[in-house]
């Protein structure tokens, strides 16, 4: 992932919650428990990179038996 030039704007915690359709409190709990997409501190704010959110989301796929 590093080295790729992903210049999309970072997501705020609120935008991530809206994108994933989960309560904002869930995003904060994930961050506290070191779950969910990796967060980056920008000043006192949490921000999320799209590429990391998409990779985390892909890892959440449910594997179904054949």
Q: What topology emerges from the helices and strands here?
A:
Blueprint (H helix, E strand, L loop, with lengths): L10 E2 H8 L3 H9 L7 E3 L2 E4 L1 H10 L7
Antiparallel strand pairs: 1-3, 2-3
Explained architecture:
It is built from 3 helices and 3 strands, in the order E-H-H-E-E-H. The protein has a 3-stranded antiparallel sheet. Helices cover 41% and strands 14% of the residues. With 66 residues, the protein is of the alpha+beta class. A hairpin with a 2-residue loop joins strand 2 and strand 3.
Rg (CA only): 13 Å
Taken in chain order, the helices and strands follow as EHHEEH
Percent of residues in helical segments?
A: 40-55%
Total separate domains: 1
Mean pLDDT: 91
Largest sheet, in brief, is: 3 strands, antiparallel
| Side-by-side strand order of the widest sheet | 1-3-2
What percent strand? 5-15%
| CA distance, first residue to last residue | 31 Å
Total number of strands: 3
The rough form would be described as globular
Number of helices: 3
Low-confidence stretches: none
Oligomer class: single chain
Q: What structural class do you assign from the helix and strand content?
A: alpha+beta
Summarize this structure briefly.
41% of the residues lie in helices and 14% in strands. It has a three-stranded antiparallel β-sheet with strand order 1-3-2.
């Amino acid at each position: 992932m590093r080295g790729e030039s992903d210049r999309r704007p970072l997501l705020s915690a609120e935008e991530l919650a809206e994108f994933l359709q989960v309560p904002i409190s869930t995003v904060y709990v994930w961050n506290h428990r070191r779950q969910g997409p990796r967060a980056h501190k920008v000043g006192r704010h949490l921000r999320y990179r799209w590429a990391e959110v998409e990779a985390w989301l892909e890892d959440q796929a449910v594997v179904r038996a054949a």
